[in-house]
Amino acid sequence: MIDDSLSILSVSRLSKRYAGGHCALDAVDLDVRKGEIFALLGPNGAGKTTLINIVCGIVTATEGQVSVAGFDISRDFRKARSMIGLVPQELFIEGFETVSATVAFSRGLFGLAPNPSRVEQILRDLSLWDKRNSPMMALSGGMKRRVMIAKALAHEPRILFLDEPTAGVDVDLRRDMWALVRGLRDNGVTIILTTHYIEEAEEMADRIGIINRGCIVLVEDKDRLMKRMGKRQLTIQLHRPLASLPAALSERGLTLTESGDALVYTFDSQRDRSGIADIFRSLADNGIDFGDLTTTESSLEEIFVSLVRAP
Ligand SMILES: Nc1ncnc2c1ncn2[C@@H]1O[C@H](COP(=O)(O)OP(=O)(O)O)[C@@H](O)[C@H]1O
Ligand SMILES: [Mg+2]
């Protein structure tokens, strides 16, 4: 259960049908907790950008509610929007502007008074201070992305949306971005990032939401998901079906399949397998003959693929 007082973004029954009838979001419910890194993972076309764009007021929802730090985006749009920084999927660059002017201007867009020391702090935090007087067009791709983040932070938002922050970015820069995002979270900013890279969600997120065809199919703590992913299952095919499971076997964590013709043992693949030797001893002690043994292992990749597979 989510404690409402900890939720900074609350999305309820949110739907979007674009003109032409395409349903990009279908009654999405989602809560993001204050101070977390939440990764919204999904294939291209799943509805990630649509969701972000609705929250940021760029796209209008067909149905549903969104509130940001308690402000409803339709009733209190300006207050809600002031809480949010957005780094969009497509970067917009004003080539001749300097880095510091670009960031300072963005602050002004939110009606905030100029605050050079705040802008300096942001530029220093993002290792852009040395580049403050460079025109945007003189920067490398990685630096431009940093400026986009600086711009999004200029009005001191409490939530930062990063829409596909590392799409098409090389590995080194991707790692830099991850470190940078963690630093922001450590400064108290809630981070919501979208990605279609499983690896990125795995690396960065406190929680992972999986979206497919406009529906949220899973929201789970990353560590819990990884633990689940680390599970292996051993299936022991029996020569003669059992009507019930002997107590000695159920104590060892075995379960009997519904048809009674196989035993299943789920174990943690990280841990040693000493339990398995004990199980075989118990089977012998109970006079249970078995045939085929199979083991299966689930990975996040498999979980993801099975969840987003076309019906
Ligand atoms: N302006 C638009 N008009 C019509 N359809 C759109 C528009 N924007 C996005 N879509 C469609 O909505 C679906 C979700 O798109 P999008 O939110 O961009 O997905 P994602 O960011 O997960 O790749 C896609 O099928 C896309 O083609
Ligand atoms: Mg997108």
Structure summarized in a few sentences:
By secondary structure, the chain is of the alpha/beta class.
Overall description:
The protein is 34% helix and 29% strand. The protein has helices at 48-55, 77-82, 99-109, 116-125, 141-153, 171-186, 198-204, 222-229, 247-251, 274-285, 300-308; strands at 7-17, 23-33, 37-41, 63-68, 71-72, 84-87, 159-163, 190-195, 207-212, 215-221, 231-238, 254-256, 262-268, 290-297. α3 (99-109) packs parallel to α5 (141-153). The protein is α/β, with parallel strands linked by helices and 311 residues long. It has 2 domains: 4-227, Rossmann fold (3-Layer(aba) Sandwich), CATH 3.40.50.300; 230-306, Alpha-Beta Plaits. A hairpin with a 2-residue loop joins β4 and β5 (71-72). The radius of gyration is 25 Å and the shape is elongated. The protein contains 11 helices and 14 strands. The longest helix has 16 residues, at 171-186. The two termini are 29 Å apart. It has a 6-stranded mixed sheet with strand order 6-7-8-3-9-10, with helices on both faces. The chain has a 4-stranded antiparallel sheet with strand order 2-1-4-5. The site of magnesium ion has 5 residues, from α1. Magnesium ion binds next to α1.
CATH class category of the largest domain: Alpha Beta
The CATH topology assignment of the largest domain is Rossmann fold
- Give me the number of helical elements: 11
Helix-strand sequence: EEEHEEHEHHHEHEHEEHEHEEHEH
Q: Give the overall silhouette.
A: elongated
Please give the structural blueprint.
Elements: E1 7-17, E2 23-33, E3 37-41, H1 48-55, E4 63-68, E5 71-72, H2 77-82, E6 84-87, H3 99-109, H4 116-125, H5 141-153, E7 159-163, H6 171-186, E8 190-195, H7 198-204, E9 207-212, E10 215-221, H8 222-229, E11 231-238, H9 247-251, E12 254-256, E13 262-268, H10 274-285, E14 290-297, H11 300-308
Helix pairs in contact: 3-5
The protein binds adenosine-5'-diphosphate (ADP) and magnesium ion (MG).
Adenosine-5'-diphosphate binds next to helix 1.
